Amino acid sequence: MVTTKKKKGKRQNFFASQKLNESSVFDSNGGEELSAAKKFINSDLVDQRIENEKKESDNQSRKLESVEKPVLLEVLKNSFDLTAINSTSFIKLEKEEPLFKKVRYSIFHNDSIWLFFDSKCISFDLGMSELFQFSVDSDFLNYEPLILDNKVYFIQGKKILELDYSSGEKKQYSISFIPTSNLHIFEGSFFLISDSNRLISFNSSFEENWSFSIDNYLFTQPTFENGSIWLGTSGGIMYQLDKNGEVIWTYNSKSPIFSSPLVSGTNLFLTTLSGKIQVLSILEKDYRFSIDTGFALFDAPIIHNGRVYVANRSYLYEISLSDGSFKNIANFPNHIETLISLGEYLGVYTIDGVLILVNDDITQYNLLDSQVLRKPFAVMQHLFYINGEQNFAKIDMSAY
Question: Looking at residue 131, what is its pLDDT?
Fold first, then answer.
């Protein structure tokens, strides 16, 4: 049983970890990909726990080999028309326009662009005319800042810095742990993850409202949607919480979840290390159907222009919500890390920092010939991003 801690009091003991009924299925690179998840963890002790959990999952996978085999790529080739994308299929975008150098974060907020450098932040309108700027301490830029009304919040160690950029007033709050997540705001409360296994809610003065702990790990950011908080865990359990931290619904996916749950309308999407996309009904609080892609999944599907897309390795798929079928749309030459909705384009972002823009009818592929370091965004037919030289750059996409 999971317990929610209210206000003050000692930290409670939480439920014993639930055993999975179905083991994770790893491909030949599974071990390397699982190790990559450690980048979210700060503590050496937690690293050791993760390593132990990985070994246990590998042992379970080996035991399962004689019972259940993963879907191999050859099976997918027989089932789908895989459209290979080669260099002649790409239309390279024109040269980027570098605007600023050494940018740490770029954020689009309230019709303005915010650039965070090591010593300052500058806000611009859409025409890139400066609105205002203020000083920033680089020590508080380990996590992406949170912009809320006329205030910006920064994290550094066990400190939260609140800056009112209209008056210049600063407030600093102390918390009892080093966060392992970005700072979130939801229903008037702030949220952080501690030790990669505890979600904590704070009031506006960063006094603890409640906390919710699990026995395994939260490797991803929470999803705040439809008035609820959604958590996917390394133990395979998905939790739906209300704003007060009370459990509304739990679901056992039977395989570790390393991506944030995706909520769209009345559907909930989970991707797991066993390679399955599980689609659940939020209204009925029940399983609808699942799709087996054959390889471990580390990124959630996305909704783009009314369609559901998911990427696995170098393959891009479209999912039908009516019957659970899915079709392969394209096979890219690079390993895909994540998908991003960029205006009218679907952004395919690869592990080596390449961004490919796919148009709505999946007939044109524009290759951005520059490494992308941080998440891009699109505004009024312009693509903004931080490139490999840490320059903030812009490309006019209207000609494509």
Answer: 93
